[in-house]
């Protein structure tokens, strides 16, 4: 039986696009990894790591942006701040940055932005790592409603 990606590719996409789509279909069973080139990535997605979670709306261009108040305890004092997550997603990868700003504690200088990159790891799922010069952290970027691995 011909796969869905191969059937759609027939006479529609360039050979390179078809090869990638068929490979994605083969790697993830009958569902294309993170959605093939014919599926929109727009919709609700979730960034998830060991220390943070975000829900974001991805637009038709694959861009997303979210910000909100957060808090952290530093040296026994609770500080509030604004955290921003923004980035882009494509069928090949996801790239994003997380920035903390507007700390309530005086003389606190926020560190550099945390940069995250990931690749498709299954239907509606990307996995990768984040780094900010001080630490590395694994993350997943998951389409809301996608089945857990």
UniProtKB/TrEMBL annotation:
Domain of life the protein comes from: Bacteria
UniProt keywords, alphabetically: Signal
Stretch forming the signal peptide: 1-23
Name under which the protein is recorded: Uncharacterized protein
Organism encoding this protein: Kaistia soli DSM 19436
Phylogenetic classification of the source organism: Bacteria, Pseudomonadati, Pseudomonadota, Alphaproteobacteria, Hyphomicrobiales
């Amino acid at each position: 039986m011909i796969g869905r990606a191969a059937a759609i590719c027939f006479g529609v996409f360039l050979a390179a696009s078809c090869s990638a789509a068929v490979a994605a279909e083969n790697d993830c069973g009958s569902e294309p990894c993170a959605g093939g080139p014919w599926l929109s990535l727009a919709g609700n997605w979730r960034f998830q790591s060991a220390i943070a979670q975000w829900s974001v709306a991805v637009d038709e261009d694959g861009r997303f942006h979210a910000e909100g108040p957060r808090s952290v305890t530093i040296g026994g004092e609770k500080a509030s701040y604004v955290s921003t997550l923004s980035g882009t997603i494509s069928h090949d990868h996801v790239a994003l940055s997380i920035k903390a700003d507007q700390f309530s504690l005086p003389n606190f200088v926020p560190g550099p932005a945390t940069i995250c990159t990931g690749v498709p790891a299954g239907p509606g799922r990307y996995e990768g790592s984040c780094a900010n010069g001080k630490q590395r952290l694994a993350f997943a970027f998951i389409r809301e409603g996608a089945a857990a691995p």
